[in-house]
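Moderator note: this is an archived Q&A kept for reference. The question asked for a predicted structure of one protein chain; the sequence and the answer are reproduced below.
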Amino acid sequence: MELIFLGTSAGVPTRNRNVTALLLNLQHPTQAGLWLFDCGEGTQHQMLRTAFNPGKLDKIFITHLHGDHLFGLPGLLCSRSMAGNVQPLTIYGPTGIKEFVETALRLSGSWTDYPLVIEEISEGQVLDDGLRKVTAWALNHPVECYGYRIEEHDKPGALDARALIAQGVRPGPVFQKLKNGETLTLEDGRIIKGEDFLAPAVAGKKLAIFGDTAPCPAALELARNVDLMVHEATLEWAMEEKANSRGHSSSRQAAQLALDAGVGRLVITHLSSRYDEAGSRRLLDECRECFPETLLAEDFGIVAL
């Protein structure tokens, strides 16, 4: 998996940062996917500057209905249709997302020529496609807002083919059954258990993508032991009280959460437009004082898992 940041500014765009949008490229050999998390104004323009096409999107997850996370959605949906794309698309988001999309399309005389499903979510599991699951956690913001935890299912360990051959088991379809953990009886009556020839399972990757939030108890469970956490750092430590009063977090609070939750790496994003390049680096430094494995999101930056 890899993350591609399309917008990293809070509230309004700046010369160097667009408002919030984040691509998740699943990069699976047999079940690839391209997911978008939030869709601030201008997101489709940002995508034009990448190798990714909106037609490849199959899922869009909206954290909340504030404009800097949402106002790019109608335009992207329409452009996707005008390009002749017929691939289905599902949108997940809080209560009101369906009304917002349908009203924007209706009042503008627009439509989609592809199957469009809009699912209004609540806290809990959002989907499980067999390879990974997504759960939503309610956060602390003035409007209904969610963070999304994406967890790959564990992968079966490698089959010890050499040991099986040494036992007189011939390669073929039987190997796949044993890799699936089945127990088989051979022609000579011997019983072979697949689990006896499998290496330990490979743990799937875990990712937490936060919407806007002030510190809250749910944040710890959303982020617990993930490989990568994407979290807002709207304001610096000295402005923590102001950040919290508006449903946001400071740099230091994002880093402390990463430390408490035992995450692998933290990426901070959603920086106030008051911060230029030097100010953004200051926020990063504040995070690294508490949690050294912190990265600063930049528009078009890519982070691999």
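Archived answer notes: The mean pLDDT is 94.
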